[in-house]
Design a protein that fits this description.
Layout: H1 10-15, H2 17-28, H3 36-45, H4 47-57, E1 69-70, E2 79-80, E3 85-86, H5 88-92, E4 100-106, E5 111-115, H6 116-132, E6 140-144, H7 149-160, E7 164-168, H8 174-184, E8 188-192, E9 194-197, E10 200-203, H9 205-214, E11 220-224, E12 239-241, H10 242-245, E13 258-259, E14 263-268, E15 278-282, H11 283-297, E16 305-308, H12 315-321, E17 329-334, H13 344-351, E18 356-360, H14 361-370, H15 374-377, E19 385-389, H16 395-405, E20 410-413, E21 415-417, E22 422-426, E23 440-441, E24 447-450, E25 463-467, E26 477-478, H17 485-491, E27 499-507, E28 513-518, H18 532-539, E29 545-555, E30 558-567, H19 575-588, E31 597-600, H20 614-621
Parallel strand pairs: 4-17, 6-7, 6-8, 8-11, 11-12, 16-17, 16-18, 18-19, 19-20, 30-31
Antiparallel strand pairs: 1-2, 3-13, 4-5, 9-10, 14-15, 15-26, 21-22, 22-23, 24-25, 25-27, 27-28, 29-30
Helix pairs in contact: 3-4, 6-7, 8-9, 14-16
Length: 649
């Protein structure tokens, strides 16, 4: 058994929120609960008691009602807190003092701060204006916005009156926005006039004009100037600037309390296999689940300063914003994480005294490839936790974090998804960190690994990640899915009554998890299932390889492994490098992992949230249509994979 790469100090364990929670459960509900493992068992064996205790411990504002759950033997079909009444925004605005709620930092050098008191006032002014223009409970309000304080204000104003929020980041193309927002028919659209990325300014209003022309429901457009101080609103119907839209006479918010499952967010699937699914999440389930993750798993307290590098088109924005309910300070960053150089995020951590910083796994890998050594160049005194998600975090990235960033921090790889607006597997401040592993299964999440026949796998056996009990943050429905058939097909067709999440994974002997990638991208050479992450881990350990993407190509009545690599500038893929790639894969994985073909490419297609798209590349290679290229950040990259002569033999 490998040694941990990090152990929490006795002081950190003693002061952790989850330690207080354990003591409370032990005293009031189950005397046998004494550590994380026994708490996890309690959360699965007594789900009603666990989620009721979580509501109380996290101080949810609202009326819980007498019943905690009904129909827990049905999935889907269970109902949580069926008698409850609450308002999502009221819980995120429970603090109204002079402490910083939001600190905004842009790559352009723009910085602003909003106290909790000022945030409440701004939300009150926008909420009143939304009511004045006819927005009511259940209406949709959308955003095409960067990660700005105004975006948070608009979301809170929307949800305070019981309307439903949905957002796209401004790097989405017009068709990508229409494919999403056109399905939900928003009344109001918040947008920015322009934004910057990697030192370049990008106009938004031409795209907004086309979006309004093609989505008839948009009756009002509210524009935040941001980096364009005098935007031209010509050609937009019923458009005005955010400053003039706000009703400054409104000082209080009339929070509309609604049932637990009342919709709060509409998020979207990636859309690379068709029109995106409109995944609709309930206010209570989203609030309770994210409070559990932030308070218990991430150990967020009022004194913390939380920053997750994200856009408003990725669920991690929704995750991060929930941190307001803890009273912590959120640091919003807008721009490229590598501008003006690869050390930009470490400059941010030091300048803003960030204690919990999150990013995608690919960012950590890119830091390593760039040669950044923050331990030598930065203070990082405030930093106690790094969170990583979006794709599996390679063991080498664990080594890099502890050797070159900071040896004493909790590196928490986390995984879940847009589908549940939260995580199945998470970090924990009480537990050791093992190289290459996610620390633990999430509290209240009855996670198992399933074999193809539906039986449960043994420890360290690889299979499908599933959840075998209902949990509060399951989607309440898909928007427009009248009979629920698309919802059931998405998660419950593979195993009846069991949520199949679509990840290929194994539970380790430490009680943690290793994820090998999406199961729909799993390779099957010779009928043996292989996760793509196992190959990426080996290939990207080579200095010459910047990143890679791997697919299975149908060949001679079987499947062969094809690897595409993007190399450092100026390098060419020669026979020597190909041999080294194959050798490192064979030595550290298995002969079945060794790619039959290795091909150099100049770019790798990815979604706007940064995830590589193996299925889209596989479809191109096989001459199939990629149905929604507007879901991609760089759709032109797909053409690099079409009709390659190397794949004809």
């Amino acid at each position: 058994m490998t040694d941990p790469v990090w152990l929490p100090s006795a002081k950190r364990v003693q002061e952790a929120n989850i330690s207080r929670f354990i003591r409370l459960i032990q005293k009031e509900r189950d005397p046998s609960v004494s550590d994380y493992q026994s708490l996890y068992r309690f959360s699965i064996e007594s789900p009603k008691a666990f989620w009721r205790a979580t509501w109380e411990f996290c101080g949810v504002l609202g009326t819980a009602g007498e019943r905690t759950a009904i129909d827990l033997d049905r999935m889907p079909g269970a109902s949580w807190f069926p008698d409850a009444s609450l308002n999502f925004a009221e819980n995120l605005l429970r603090y109204r003092d002079d402490r910083d709620a939001l600190v905004f930092v842009s790559e352009t050098g723009i910085t602003t701060q909003l106290s909790y008191k000022d945030l409440y006032r701004q939300v009150a002014s926008v909420a009143a204006s939304l009511r004045h223009c006819g927005v009511d409970t259940g209406d949709r309000v959308a955003a095409y916005m960067p990660n700005l304080p105004e975006t948070v204000v608009a979301m809170l104003a929307t949800t305070s009156i019981g309307a439903i929020w949905s957002s796209c980041s401004p790097d989405f193309g017009v068709n990508g926005v229409i494919d999403r927002l056109g399905q939900i028919e928003p009344k109001v659209l918040f947008c920015a006039a322009a934004y910057t990325y990697n030192g370049k300014q990008h106009d938004c209003l031409d795209k907004v004009r086309e979006i309004q022309a093609r989505i008839d429901s948009i009756a009002r457009i509210i524009v935040t100037p941001y980096v364009e101080p005098n935007p031209d609103l010509g050609g937009l119907r019923n458009a005005e600037l955010m400053a003039s839209f706000q009703d400054e006479t409104a000082k209080e918010i009339d929070f509309t309390r609604l049932p637990f499952d009342h919709p709060v967010y509409i998020l979207y699937s990636s859309g690379t296999t068709g029109v995106p699914k409109c995944i609709t999440h309930g206010a209570g389930g989203t609030l309770l689940q994210l409070l559990k993750e932030l308070v218990l798993h991430t150990d967020i307290k009022r004194d913390d300063r939380l920053c997750y590098y994200t856009t408003c088109g990725w669920m991690m924005w929704n995750w991060m914003v929930n941190g307001l309910a803890t009273g912590a300070t959120l640091v919003l960053y807008e721009g490229s994480p590598f501008y003006p150089g690869p050390e930009a995020m470490f400059d941010l951590i030091d300048s803003q005294a960030i204690s919990v910083f999150g990013t995608g796994a690919k960012t950590i890998s890119a830091w390593q490839k760039s040669g950044v050594k923050p331990r030598e160049t930065h203070n990082l005194h405030s930093l106690k936790t790094i969170l990583s998600t979006g794709s599996p975090l390679a063991p080498e990235s664990f080594n890099y974090v502890y050797s070159e960033i900071k040896p004493d921090l909790c590196l928490s790889s986390i995984a879940g998804g847009t589908d549940i607006v939260s995580c199945f597997v998470l970090g924990c401040p009480l537990l050791p960190v093992y190289r290459g592993e996610i620390q633990c299964l999430g509290l209240g999440m009855a996670v198992q690994i399933c074999r193809d026949d539906g039986s449960y796998a043994d420890i360290n056996e690889t299979g499908e990640l599933v959840c075998v009990q209902p949990f509060p943050s399951m989607p309440v429905f898909f928007w427009g899915d009248q009979d629920g058939s698309k919802y059931r097909a998405a998660y419950f067709d593979q195993y009846a009554g069991i949520w199949a999440h679509g990840d290929f994974a194994r539970i380790t002997g430490h009680g943690g998890m290793v994820i090998f990638g999406r199961s729909d991208a799993t390779l099957n050479p010779g009928g043996v299932r292989i996760g793509t992450a196992e190959i990426y881990r080996q290939v990207e350990s080579l200095d010459e390889v910047t990143e890679s993407i791997c697919i299975g190509q149908d060949w001679d009545d079987d499947v062969r492994v094809v690897l595409f690599v993007r190399l450092r500038d100026g390098l060419q893929l020669d026979e020597n490098l190909q041999a080294r790639i194959r050798n490192v894969v064979r030595k550290n994985a298995t002969p079945r992992h060794v790619p039959a073909k290795i091909i150099q490419v100049s770019d790798i297609p990815r979604t706007i949230s940064g995830k590589i798209v193996e299925l889209a590349v596989r479809n191109i290679v096989h001459g199939r249509q990629v149905k929604n290229v507007d879901a991609l950040a760089n759709p032109e990259a797909l053409e690099l994979y079409r009709d390659l002569p190397e794949l004809q033999s």
